[in-house]
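Suppose a colleague, Dr. K., hands you the sequence of a protein chain of 822 amino acids and asks what its three-dimensional shape might be. Before reaching for any lab equipment, you can write down a predicted structure in token form. Begin with the sequence itself:
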Amino acid sequence: MEVLREDGEEEEEEKKAFVMSDELEDLEEKLSKIQVHIPNVLPASYKMNSAKEQMLLQLADNFHRQYAHLCPDREPLFLHPLNECGVEKFVSTTVRPTLQPYPELYNWDGCAQFVSDYLTMEPLPSPITPPSCLPSPTTTLKYQQGNCFGFSVVLCSLLIGAGYDAYCVNGYATREICMMDETREVCPLLKKSKEVRSPEKVKKYAVKPPRDLRSKFELQQAAKKEAEIEAAEEKKQKEEEDKLMESEKPKPDPLYGLRVHAWVLILSGKREVPESFFIDPFTANSYSTTDDCFLGIESVWNHKNYWVNMQDCWNGCKELTFDLGDPVRWEFMLLGTDKPLLLLPEEEEEELGDEDLDDFVTSWVEPIHISRKEFETRCPQGKKVIQYKKAKLEKWAPYLNSNGLVKRLTHYEDLECTRVLEVKEWFKNREDMMSMRQVNKKTEVTTEYFSPGHVQGLKAHIYKTMESETERTMEFYSETRVDGLQKRVENAQEMMEYFEGRSDFLHYRHTTFGKRTKKAQTLVNSELNARPIVQIKEQFHRNPEKPADEDVAERIFMILEERIMLTYHCKDDYITASKKEFIKQKDVDNKGNKIIMTSDMCISYQVGSSEKNKKLLHLYEMMLKLMEAEKQSKHQVWESKTEVLEILKIREEEAAASKLTVSMYDTERNEKSKQQRETMERLMQEERQRQVEQDLDYLAPFLIQMGSTEKMSKWQALRLKEDCLNDFKHRLIDKANLIQARFEKETQELQKKQQWYQQNQLSMTLEDEDAYLTYCSDAMFRIRILEIRLNRHKEMAPQKYIELEEKLCKDPRLAEYLKFYV
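The predicted structure, expressed as tokens, is then:
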């Protein structure tokens, strides 16, 4: 029985399989009948060849036959591939030089970066042979994807249009270059620029160092030991690096030296290019012509001619000479271009003609057009991700993210990219002007950078937490601030402030804080709630208008010790500075007696002066000024703390809002925002008007006086209408009278002021005259405003009266009784 059941189950499964196969065949048959017809909108030059193009193709075939006969071991030339319409085109005519209207595309690095960001890489169908199809640069840009040859043609077209001597190169490169594999390359944003240290100038006159009395033998032995230790450390470090390099070394490439790749060559000369170099269109990186990544060159071409490399590439491109005018090293296809230096016979020159040579090679491609939206969007669908060695770079189009994020670089500790070390984010078009944010995941330190234009003049903000009275550093654009503050460094115990360009020559202030008392902690939002100040140290630059021994260099207010210390600038030809120390005492002692200034309250040290000490009165006045300066410094410190709290509050609000700004030249986004704003304002105005009409009942006061209105007679309706209109008329008259009274009052006060000025004109000061002129100006402004309001009220009052009468006649409570009286 079990065997029969198994056989039955197998038969059912076979039947189900046959049914499924029939359904699949039916589905495939129906799908094959469905065809999608793409509208053919390409120009005629894309679908056919002109007479000149056919002649070029014949010349290319003839050149290729001769080349294959003379060099049978070389690979076939990449001369006339098919375009997107299946038509053979000479490769030089595929290049379409076009200058774009964007300043970023005037330089080679901007063009290369745009092509790298805008297009998506597609590998070649066969890694060891050139493609059979080469689409036009307009089609490549339209679909935003292409292989290395498509990338190179687009980039070469932009570079030649910008004035560079650029060429497309058909050659061989390493696997990483061909496959756009940057996982073993360091991100360019992480490469540190080498700091060039300028050699220190040797002073002609310098103090000789003291004589070294140490044993030379002991010094030699110590240096020898240090050298051995350093050598051992270097050896150990080198071994670790070798192990790391061995572990990171890629596997051998079986197709090494055979992988076909296309890139761009820029020759020196035009656009002040000092030295020829390569550009990889996939990554937008520039390379030297002797770089190991490029293993050989078959041919190069631009929009005018085609050259074949006749040099040996056994050592890559290191020993190649890029003088395209040398016919021994570079075999050219067409005569009459600017590169070949061969002289033609006079008869051939007359037959060819210069004009024919210039117009012989013309591009069949339409001019490249990149719209503003496409240029801004850059990346396909607005986003692109690039994986580097221990790093990941993400790019977004402007305005794609609500917080203005356009670029993010994540730096990892390991090659597997699992442990985040640091995150850098770049922003654009933010209302708070933040341009970059850097977060160190190990130290948990966040650094924010701002462009000029922040509300508080903020330039950079370094912090761990947004809580107050914690460790943080704020940098400011000092030229935008009244106090000239450049940087403020703060923690729980102290605060350092750096200034520049101040009229009082203050450049540094250091404040030391103590712990709060329990009573102070209960106070909120007052100067008494601030942390108690222990000491304030201020430093000043030299004031050339004062003598050095009267120009304070450092001022220290020791608040708890009630002392003030002054240090003056050094005089010329002196190595010590004058100093003063004041000891503060209360003005009144315990018995209520006034304390007099004594010599013990000021300790001074005067440099290079034989004069006697200054009198006590002068020292007393100086101490009073210093005590007043101490109060001002304490208040400035409190203001600095208040400003820190205000900045932190503003930054929290800005981070929560993340508003973006739109440039006044961005017509597209401004138009949309304008329409949206006008629509919202119109809807709000209609809603407001509807609410006012619902809430305002102009008959309510009069209906209350009449009492019951359920049974209203015609006489009562007419009386109600007349009372309402009369009341409205009286209110209009009263408003006009009120404006007239204010006008007359202002006029009388002005006349009185003018009479007073005529009486006291001779005895008045400049300040009084300025005050009088200011008053007259303000008074005349108020008088004109009242005059305009009165005239407008007179014009609008009859219209308002008529509108009220019409509303009363249309009111449902009165319409039935007033329809015969309208």
